[in-house]
Amino acid sequence: MTIKNVTVLGSGIMGHGIAQVSATAGYNVVLRDIEQKFLDKAMERVKWSLDKLVSKQKLSQEEADQVYSRITPKIDLAESVKNCDLVIEAVPEIMELKKKVYSELESVADKNTLFATNTSTLPITEVAKTTNRPEKFIGVHFFNPPQIMKLVEVIPGEKTPSEVTQTMVDFVKSIKKEPVICKKDVPGFIVNRIFIPLVHEAAWVMQREGATMQQIDSAVKFKLGFPMGIFELADFTGLDVIHKATHEMHSRDKKVINPHPKIEELYNDKKLGQKTGSGFYEYSGDKYQRIELSEHLAGSCNPIHLVANMINNAAWLVTNKVSDIPEIEKALRLGMGIKKPIFETAKEFGFENIVTSLLSLAKEHGQFYEPDPLLESMK
Ligand SMILES: NC(=O)c1ccc[n+]([C@@H]2O[C@H](COP(=O)([O-])OP(=O)(O)OC[C@H]3O[C@@H](n4cnc5c(N)ncnc54)[C@H](O)[C@@H]3O)[C@@H](O)[C@H]2O)c1
Description:
Layout: E1 5-9, H1 13-24, E2 28-32, H2 36-55, H3 61-69, E3 71-74, H4 77-80, E4 86-89, H5 95-108, E5 114-117, H6 124-129, E6 137-142, E7 151-156, H7 162-174, E8 178-181, H8 191-209, H9 213-224, H10 230-237, H11 239-252, H12 261-268, H13 295-298, H14 304-319, H15 325-336, H16 342-349, H17 351-365, H18 373-378
Parallel strand pairs: 1-2, 1-4, 2-3, 4-5, 5-6, 7-8
Antiparallel strand pairs: 6-7
Helix pairs in contact: 1-2, 2-3, 8-11, 8-14, 11-12, 14-16, 14-17
The structure holds nicotinamide-adenine-dinucleotide.
């Protein structure tokens, strides 16, 4: 399967970036949306981003112009997918909308065209089933912003053959991104399966152990090698995104996440984080603000329950043959910016101590906390 022509459906936050990185790699790209005003805004964003690369001397003006001209914005769907080898769908995360988009799409797309969804929370197999080509369907999960984030999770659905997975891995490499294959279509894939439950666990630690948000965040940053605190990261990501991911994941697998009511509460109060000026923390102005975190504050919080939560979910991924330790570490480094491998952190805390902590949490708070057999074997 050779890919030359790519159509991106949806020109929003993700779609315009995916179009740009594909065009930068030399693909002919059609960017499709439902109204001209969305396309105009998307092309403006592409231009802004290319101008920035020119000013940083990462691209020449001529190269930037060529990249820009390789993206054709279009509204008509049939025209958008003419001669298209790969469709990357990045329309809003609503199953009913995705279903509608795929039913329109398959009536006009060539039968050999590959479909890839950029969904972050919906199971690939469920989306694939809504189409007439689950064997030409795959998940390709870019991170925001696609122009900068190197990681792309590639997720085959139940019926995706290995050649399609390989084609997608080759495509991801060709656009200078780092693919990590999520070998099974599990809720949260790899990164969100570690990240989202950790936000909830941090809220439980705050409630049960009486640590403050700053103490917990300082420990996460300075003891676990995160680029920022976990509550900070939640506010940065958006509580709406976390809320949606929580529901999608928890409705399919109770073992992955122990939902803390604080997330529901913040979401219902429209405290969605940085973008609304309030979330776990309060913010003023729309510019990204950092919270005061320090090694001193980190000293007053032992984050073993956070390490236990993170490593237990990572171990689950290994035990269930979704991924392996080096690939999980790569995904967390590139997708979340975690500087220190989590299995190294866990070793420092001691697998024996982690298993003991999980067993005592399980005794007190239920089987969610039962340690994965892999951790027992690493003691
Ligand atoms: N924003 C993120 O951080 C992020 C990260 C990874 C994955 N994702 C996933 O990417 C997808 C898109 O998210 P987003 O944040 O870019 O959304 P967005 O709302 O910014 O953009 C979606 C775009 O799709 C357009 N659209 C709606 N119906 C359409 C149709 N029928 N055909 C073509 N375009 C249509 C909308 O007009 C809009 O421009 C979702 O599945 C989301 O879960 C988002």
